[in-house]
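note to self — DONT lose this again. spent like an hour looking for the file last time. sequence + predicted structure for the chain T wanted, 317 res
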Amino acid sequence: MDLMMERQIRVITDMVLADYGKGRYIDKAKAFTRPDKLVVEDVLEKLQKLIYPAFFKAQSYRYYTIENSTSTLIEDVLFNLSRQISLTLRYCDMYTDWDDAKLQEKAEQLSMAFLQKIPLIREYLETDLQAEFDGDPAAQSKDMIIISYPGLFAIMVYRIAHELVLLGVPMLPRMMTEIAHSKTGIDINPGATIGKYFFIDHGTGIVIGETTQIGDNVKIYQGVTLGALSTRKGQKLAGRKRHPTIEDNVTIYSGASILGGETVIGTGAVIGANAFITSSIPAGAKVSIKNQEYSVRYDDGFEKPKELADTSWFYVI
């Protein structure tokens, strides 16, 4: 590096350091006091190995058995997860006066409580896997779904994160689901409540808000939003139910938006593609958007309007 370049770097460094001193929120520069996204991602990868022991073997293990793999993974997750939880507890008012040792002790207790939930998480994921297989004729095997399907991966991360939410762990659950969001395009808030046999097909563009409640045997296709009617009041809405309730055996097709905390989609309802819903739908109802006409232009410039013939296409998978 030549002398001119070194001087320019020094000048830029001084400029950036001076900018850090303006007292803004983003100017906080104390290192190693906040959770580390890379560590959290590593924890998720290890939890995936614990949840699917035959599918994601740790390559660094020279001799692989279920026994040594499981105990090693659990110890690794416990160590790293507890450290990350201890860093997030600082964001809770009830822990602001705790010293590092006490925070770490509490984080270890929460991590142990979470690890005891792994059998429950696996129980739910087994039903989700079955729903994916039953609902997708393109699925050649369950192995294929576990290894490659983004929908099941996003659901897995949600189920992990949701258990941490129930334990009162702040920030970390959202970090986890945002990692899944970045990998899959599926945005599930960890605060949502989702029952068994949850099926996501394709998945890209799905948004499920924090206070959404979803029952059993629900199918959701790409581009679906389960959202709030308005967020104009900002933080004043925190803690209020802002997102819809989806009861058992509901199917929601691509592009549909269902909004509002008082909106309930009744048991067995079918919501057609591109529907925009802000009020409740009774059980067993089938909601569709009136077919639009389309036109075909020929070389002579003559247009012939056409109407989609089958008005019930979305009732059957």
